[in-house]
Amino acid sequence: MSTTPRSRSLWRGRIVALIGVFVVAFSLRSAVASLSPVLGAIGEDFSVAPAIVGLIGTAPPVCFAVFGIVTPLMERKLGLERLAMIAMIAATLGLTARAFSVDAVTLLLSTTLIFAAVGVGNILLPPIVKKYFPDRIGLMTSLYSTMLAISTLIPPLIAVPLAEDTSWRLSVGVWAVFAAVAMIPWLVLWMRSRTAPVEEIETANPRVFGRLWRLPLAWALVVAFAVSGTIAYSSFAWLPQILTDVAGVSAATAGVLLSLFAGMGLPASLLVPLLVVRANATRALFAVAVVAGLAGVAGLLVAPTAAPALWVALLGIAPLLFPLTLVLLGLRTRTHQGSVALSGFVQSIGYAIVAVFPFGIGLIHDATAQWTVPLLVLGAVIAAAIPAAFVAARPHTIEDEWERRHGAW
Question: What is the pLDDT of residue 277?
Fold first, then answer.
């Protein structure tokens, strides 16, 4: 007897869950890209040292790594719906508090609260989709991934014009409205689910997780994931300032270019999974990401004023390694427990590595008073994906690799 869920209307009986998934997905990324374009305006009210900017850029991956571990523990106590609601409450409070920051410390603390909520939301969305849309997992994953890309693109596009027309506080605080709206469907669903059994988030088998430390394939995916995250979060933290300093663009133009950087992820989120699954294009996609990323860095180093939009667009292609890695997490395993363990391994270690770079780049810039060395560091990070590509592109699984090296899985 087949256990495949019977397909039914996407809307029937689950419109609240559908809205909830979309508004949570929008809220998860809008806070990431809305701050750095207006740091100059914030600096007119109080000083924000490069080290603090680096810490703010480091907050997302640190929170994502930490809450990737603790969210399943919280979910067992609270349930999916209530924890999603609490995460959106925390995001609303953090976004509101950030708009009322009085110094660099309160700016950092409020931002940390925001990304703690985002870290919880990142973990909750897949099991939420599995619970409410078991017959449409592929469609819903594609839709909310696209929403993540859209919500990363919009904030830097409007941040500076809104700050200039009103204030930087409104520019960074307006996103609290969306997080507040995102609470409502999860409040409704929590009220409905209080008598239902708790849906637990599956965690990795410790025995399987431990084996991954010894497998080159697992580490190749960690590297690919870390390269993507490093370029993305370092750019969200520093790219506007890099562009104003080395390319001579205005703050508003830098915000638009940051939006261009984010926007390059939209076609990637739509096309990369299809190209990997249907055309076996893993090796080619690694090559495109590396060549484009290195070309973007080279352009910012050698001729930053010649074509800053081109250099930013090329740099924005490098994070296509993110959807590529997510697809490979499924394709490079043949068992369910292997998939869960590999996902936890790659994301927890990958985000821990990513967390070093936004802060480190700020320290390097502070020490050298220029952007040459930080850009060279980003170029070296992109180049690290080259050896990872040779391992990750081979059509084998972690179970195959373990059995070839150590015997039965």
Answer: 82
